[in-house]
Amino acid sequence: MRLIRIGDISIARVWESSIRLPLSQLGPVDELIACHRDWLYPRFADLSDDMFEFNWQSWIIDVDGFVIVIDPCAGNGRERPAIQPLHRLDLPWLERFSATGYTPERVDAVFCTHLHCDHCGWNTRQIDGRWVPTFPNARYYFVDAEVRRWDPDAPGYREVDYNANVFDDSIRPVLEAGLAAIVPADHMIAPGVRIQPAHGHSDGHCVLRVDYRGTRLWFTGDAFHHPLQVSDTALNLGGDDDPALAIATRERLCSTIASEGSYFIPAHFAAPHAGRIIGAQEGRFRFVPLGY
Ligand SMILES: [Zn+2]
Q1: How far is the CA of 239 from the centre of ligand 1 (A)?
Q2: CB 231: neighbour CB atoms within 10 A?
Q3: pLDDT averaged over the chain?
Q4: Which of 133, 135, 190, 232 is the most exposed place for a label (fewest CB within 10 A)?
């Protein structure tokens, strides 16, 4: 699926790659599976083995002609030995990007929900051995707490193997080209388009809230990796800087999205990639896939 339509908003999807993961990697899920079979199969788990499709994909949104790219995937030619599916990729992501009808030159803004390797890779591409910004006319929005988290030269830097080399090949070249705007966690980038804090998965992880002609949606990055986390916010895939804060963030997002009646588009969900959240019994929430 290349285009998602929600209210007056069209969102183009640029797929990079996918893997299959076991639902059990999220934590104890047997009871939840029993309660949510009606929407879980076959899109969000395979009935034969309870594996789910985990996508790497980016979003392009056009708000009154202002074009924003959200979470530009992992990128080609990166040294990512700790994550083999992203190591030294050579994939036609840029060709798929152009197939949406948008060119990189047409992009006004790039927003990375956080600076993990799979959310900022295509910030840059390699030309003649140098990393250069992929979107030459865009302003790249980086949240200040997230830049502090991942700059290896920042005081107290905590290294993690899965994010080695990312700052040098995907962030620093954008800073040096003068295309970056380092902004607070609550920041408006265009009318109706606002960065909002959603910390926990990483120190400065944020989401993007869009409110356009009465349609409200949230690009929630890695606040959720699988829709079952809507019903049990303690489930997680690991790799959180602050797991307790990540849970609190999920709970807050669930109640906000449910009470607004808005849609959310996480970074990694399988088709239809987006959905709503409704209140369910005992203060729990329930995911409703787009189109249901
Ligand atoms: Zn991710």
Answers
A1: 10
A2: 19
A3: 96
A4: 190
